[in-house]
Amino acid sequence: MTDAGALDRLANWPRLTLAQLPTRLLQAPRLSSDLGGGPIYIKMDAETGFALGGNKVRKLEFELAPARLEGVTHLVTAGGPQSNHCRVTAACAARLGLACVLVTNGPEPDRPTGNALLHRLFGATIETVEDRAHRAAGMEAAAKRIASSGGRALVVPIGASTGLGCLGYATAAIELVTQLDALGDGRSQTVLIGSTSSGGTMAGLLLGLALLGRDDVRLLGVSADAPADELTDTARALAAEGAELLGAAPDLGSIHLETIDDQVGAGYGIPTPDSDAALRDFARLEGVVLDPTYTAKAAAGLINRLRTEALTASERVVFLHSGGAPGLLS
C-alpha cells in the first residue's frame, strides 16, 4: 500500500540542490543481445552531474540540507584514497565556501591521480591514517581539533550512508518507478541490480519501493567488499532509520532484497577477471564507462546472474550505474 503522507513529507524534505534529475534510463540492446536474455536498461546515476556525478550526490543533498549547515565551518569525512564520496563531499565544501578535511587510509601518493587528484583540486586537506579501521577515529580527532580552534565541523559518515542520506535513494526509487511505468515494453517485473558497500543506496531504494508498495521491483546488491549478510542487515537498518525520520512504518519485508558477495575477489578495489571483462563489455557494447571498484563488479554480478538464471517473459533488468569513472583513471 502506498504511504501518501510519507511520500509527501519526502518530496518536501529540505535539501541542498545539487543533482541534475531525473537521470536517464537507457535501454542496452546490444548488451541484451550479447547475453541472450530479456531487456536490460541502465539507470544512469553516473550522470547526476555535480562534481562528475555518481550516487553520492543524491545522498549529500539530504546530509547537507541548509539547516544542518548553520554555523558550520568545515566538512569532515573519510574514505579510501580513491573515494567517490570524498570527491563529492570536497566539491560540496568548495561550492558552499567551507573548509574540508578528508581522512583517507593509505600513504600519501607521490603523484595523485583520479579521485585523489580531484580531492586536492577541490581544496580539501588530506589526513592519512594507516588503514580503514582508523578512519572513524581520524574524523573524530579532526572535528575536535577544528572545535578547539573556534570552528565547527559537520562530520559526514562514510558514504553518507545514514537514515537521512538514504532518503536520496528513496526519491531515486520514485523517479525510477515513474520511468519504468512509462516504458511500455510488456514487462511487469523488474530486477534492479547495483553495487553496495556502505549500504545507503540499497537502503534508500528499499525504503522508496516500500513507501510506494512496489513489490514488483526486486533488489540485488553486489558487494564491493563486505559479507552479503552484513550488507543486507545494514541496508534494512538504514531503511528503517529513514522511515522513522519520515514518520512512516512501511513493510520493508515486502520488498525482495538480496545481496551477493561472489564478485569481491581478492578484496576492495582489486579488479577480478570477471569485473575487467564486464567493464570492457559495457564500454564496447554500449559506450558506457564503469569503474573498477564498484560498478564493474556489480556488472559482473549482473552478467553472471543472467548467464545462470534466465529472465522470465515478464521480467526486465535495470542496472544502477552509480558512477565512479574517475577511479578508472587512477
Description of the molecule:
- The protein contains 11 helices and 10 strands.
- The protein is an alpha/beta fold and 330 residues long.
- The chain has 2 domains: 220 residues, Rossmann fold (3-Layer(aba) Sandwich); 91 residues, Rossmann fold.
- The strands form 2 sheets. A 6-stranded mixed beta sheet has the order 1-2-10-7-8-9. A 4-stranded parallel beta sheet has the order 5-4-3-6, sandwiched between helices.
- Helix 9 links the parallel strand 8 and strand 9.
- Helix 10 packs across helix 11.
- The protein is globular.
- The mean pLDDT is 96.
List the defining traits of the structure above:
alpha/beta; 11 helices; 2 domains; globular; single chain; 6-stranded mixed sheet; Rossmann fold; 4-stranded parallel sheet; 330 residues
What is the element layout, followed by pairings?
Elements: H1 4-11, E1 25-27, H2 29-35, E2 40-44, H3 56-63, E3 74-79, H4 84-96, E4 99-105, H5 114-121, E5 125-129, H6 135-148, E6 153-155, H7 167-181, E7 189-196, H8 200-212, E8 217-223, H9 228-245, E9 257-260, H10 273-286, H11 295-308, E10 315-321
Parallel strand pairs: 2-10, 3-4, 3-6, 4-5, 7-8, 7-10, 8-9
Antiparallel strand pairs: 1-2
Helix pairs in contact: 2-10, 3-7, 4-5, 7-8, 8-9, 10-11
- Cα distance spanning the termini: 46 Å
User: What's the Cα radius of gyration?
Assistant: 19 Å
Q: What is the name of the CATH topology of the largest domain?
A: Rossmann fold
How many individual helices?
A: 11
Number of strands: 10
Helical proportion, percent range? 40-55%
Secondary-structure class: alpha/beta
Proportion of beta-strand residues? 15-25%
CATH-defined architecture of the largest domain:
3-Layer(aba) Sandwich
Number of domains: 2
Major sheet details? 6 strands, mixed
Give, in order, the helices and strands.
Answer: HEHEHEHEHEHEHEHEHEHHE
Q: Mean pLDDT across all residues, rounded? A: 96
Strands of the biggest beta sheet: in what spatial order? 1-2-10-7-8-9
Shape category? globular
Regions with little confidence, pLDDT below 50 for 5+ residues? none
> For this structure, what is the CATH class of the largest domain?
Alpha Beta
